[in-house]
């Protein structure tokens, strides 16, 4: 009788998480194409909705907050300041929200065949990036119009900000994607979190208002949020180079809080990957 090593067998329905997802790039591309085609099937505007939604958000926030509440006072080029934060938060909201729903949304496929399930989570990041790029193009045009003069440090800050948001939204999407398989209430929690984090981030107002309203430990807690750091890095990259005078970044933004944000985002991704690998073997049964 031929002996077969037990190492040749794996627990059914369980893979190596992100490693398997990255090795199946062809399947990833198919999933991204599927998500985009399904989303815009029967749509007249199609990908143009990537411009319409942030445009409407910008107009509403600019009029309600910038004009009526006069939050634009003391912030030159407030339109650039506002829009640079909006598009970053839109990316986070889409990547996080779709990541939390992707397992349930692809339940029929998960129950029929086996493929690396983390591919669904990775595909939501790529779909969010596809929608983010047109918004970034609009931001760049606006920046050049008002005299954008970035240096290497500002361009590097924009790249780091996107890396933080990709990792953080991916990690949260994994955690809530697992939770949503077992408890559908997770979807509603995600919507609440996106709303809360939007208003707790310095998108419509400056971080200096927070510093003036909370004690030092509260500001430190505020700056330990990866979203806050990413938004401020985007302001540093796109808004600050359009100003004539000097703009004061949060204390130790580049030397302390950016590394903290990277570490926090990586921890969330690690926890999400571990939870995903632990429970993905039961997804088919639960769905």
From TrEMBL:
It is found in: Cell inner membrane; Cell membrane. It is a multi-pass membrane protein. It comes from the Bacteria. Keywords: Cell inner membrane, Cell membrane, Membrane, Transmembrane, Transmembrane helix, Transport. GO terms for cellular component: plasma membrane. One of its GO terms (biological process) is lipopolysaccharide transport. Pfam families: ABC2_membrane. Residues 45-279 form the ABC transmembrane type-2 domain. GO terms for molecular function: ABC-type transporter activity. Belongs to the ABC-2 integral membrane protein family. InterPro entries: ABC2_TM, ABC2_TM_bact-type. The chain crosses the membrane at residues 51-71, 78-96, 125-148, 155-183, 219-240, 252-276. This is Transport permease protein.
């Amino acid at each position: 009788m031929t002996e077969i090593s037990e190492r040749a067998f794996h627990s059914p329905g369980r893979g190596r998480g992100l490693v398997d997802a990255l090795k199946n790039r062809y399947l990833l591309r198919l999933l991204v194409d599927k998500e985009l085609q399904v989303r815009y099937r029967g749509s007249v505007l199609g990908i143009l909705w990537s411009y319409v939604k942030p445009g409407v958000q910008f107009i509403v926030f600019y009029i309600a907050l910038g004009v009526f509440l006069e939050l634009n006072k003391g912030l030159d080029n407030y339109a650039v300041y506002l829009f640079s934060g909006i598009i970053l938060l839109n990316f986070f909201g889409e990547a996080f929200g779709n990541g939390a729903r992707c397992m349930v949304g692809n339940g029929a496929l998960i129950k029929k065949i086996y493929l690396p399930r983390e591919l669904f989570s990775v595909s939501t990041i790529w779909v969010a990036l596809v929608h983010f790029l047109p918004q970034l193009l609009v931001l760049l045009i606006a920046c050049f119009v008002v005299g954008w003069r970035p240096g290497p440090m500002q361009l590097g800050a924009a790249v780091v900000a996107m890396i933080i948001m990709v990792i953080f939204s991916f990690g949260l999407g994994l955690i809530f994607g697992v939770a949503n398989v077992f408890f559908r209430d997770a979807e509603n929690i995600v919507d609440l979190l996106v709303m809360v984090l939007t208003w707790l981030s310095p998108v419509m107002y400056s971080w200096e208002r927070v510093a003036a309203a909370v004690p030092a430990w509260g500001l430190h807690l505020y700056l330990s949020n990866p979203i806050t750091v990413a938004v401020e890095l985007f302001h540093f990259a796109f808004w600050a180079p359009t100003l004539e005078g000097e703009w004061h970044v949060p204390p130790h933004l580049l030397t302390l809080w950016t590394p903290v944000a990277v570490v926090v985002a990586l921890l969330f991704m690690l926890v999400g990957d571990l939870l995903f690998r632990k429970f993905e073997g039961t997804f088919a049964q639960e769905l």
